[in-house]
Amino acid sequence: MTSLNSLLCGGLQGYILVALLLFLIGLGAVLVRRSILLQFMGVELMLNAANVALLAFARFRGGDPQGTVFYLFIIAVAACEAAVGLALVVGLYRHRQSTDTDRADALKQ
Amino acid sequence: MFLIFALITLAGAVALVFQRNLVVAGLCLVLCFMGVAGLFLLLANPVAAALQIIVYSGAIVVLLLFVVMLLNEHQEEPAARSRPLQRWLSVAVILALGAGVVKLVTGSRVLRQLDANARSAMPAPMTLNKLGDALFSQHLLGFEVAGLLLLAAMVGAVALVKRDL
Predict the structure, then answer these.
(1) Which residue among B76, B99, B116 closes a domain?
(2) Could you list the residue range(s) of the whole structural domain that residue B146 is in?
(3) Domain A3-96 listed as CATH 2.40.100.10
(4) Which ipTM score applies to this complex?
(5) What pTM does this model have?
(6) What average pLDDT does the structure give for chain B?
(7) Out of B29, B71, B139, whose CB is closest to A44?
(8) Within 10 A of B28 (CB to CB), how many other CB atoms are there?
(9) Domain count for chain B
(10) Rounded to whole angstroms, how far apart are CA atoms A97 and B35?
């Protein structure tokens, strides 16, 4: 099995590469965009990249259910993060009438 | 099949980064999550695929779109002042990391070994039965803590957005 074949036909390397690229795209969304909602979407992309890598390794190490258990925990934490994070965004918007992170650069108004 | 779902995932993510309208960006996020769910199906894990669609593309994206529409901030605001150095620095860092990642993954001998091992013995697909067994026999405490965390997050979210508690 050559490396390129494994990349294109769903070998472990292909999944890990997709996960890492997804993580980097999410990181790009956080670093380059200014809207806090888009940055939030970037964080969700990074969480998903971690999930893809976790489940790919779980599958290629013999289909261990522990991987899916941890995926369940990650999903629970992501849901908490979404609820609290979006509440914070709404709070920020109430104080500053803006979702631009460049403008939210002072702790006190 | 793998290539199709991988392309859907990455295309959704890239479209999200370059999208001007936040509502369309949320829909790109749904596309990306659907691609990830497809990848989970190919990994013989239909439980994770269903959870991905229900929780991520169902709950989280809907919450996100609600907030986007509630705040009426469909476009990114014009920059207060341009920061070209930070922008180009982040692009350069991401491109460098991407090149390093591709080189590392394609050249890794351990990953190739794991891949070859898995090909000789394909594991059975994940079922809710196996997942429940593992969850409630070995991770019961973690399960309870996750429930408590969800409750705390719910109370916290209400407390944060309520004006006079």
Answers:
(1) B76
(2) 128-165
(3) no
(4) 0.88
(5) 0.89
(6) 88
(7) B29
(8) 21
(9) 2
(10) 35
